[in-house]
Specification:
105 residues, single chain, mainly alpha
């Protein structure tokens, strides 16, 4: 069992180093800081959160469209999607590794 734990920990170390050097993650963090610094986006996000109680209202839909047409938000969501798929890929690899090694014990 110790061999499996060491193998998984080694793989996790590799994953962490890949994530640390990931341009998607760096881009996403930079964009997040830019979004936080933009007062109009912050106000819109607060309003959107308040309007979320009725997600089918015209005001909510309109504000959501406006936010998602903003280049910063659009680029952030693209980076977020890339990271989601990267994480999904990592999870699939880890699961297959664990399944393979479980049979070897």
């Amino acid at each position: 069992m110790k061999i499996l734990n060491e193998l998984v920990l080694d793989q996790l170390d590799d994953i962490y180093s890949l994530l640390d050097s990931s341009t998607e993650l760096k881009t996403m963090l930079e964009l997040k800081n830019k979004i936080k610094a933009d007062e109009s986006i912050k106000k819109s996000l607060v309003l959107l959160e308040k309007l979320a109680a009725n997600p089918y209202s015209n005001e909510y839909i309109s504000l959501r469209k406006e936010l998602f047409s903003n280049p910063l938000i659009k680029e952030y969501k693209e980076a977020e999607t890339e990271l989601y798929y990267l994480t999904l890929s990592i999870n699939i690899k880890l699961n297959s590794l664990l399944k393979e090694k479980k049979g070897c014990l």
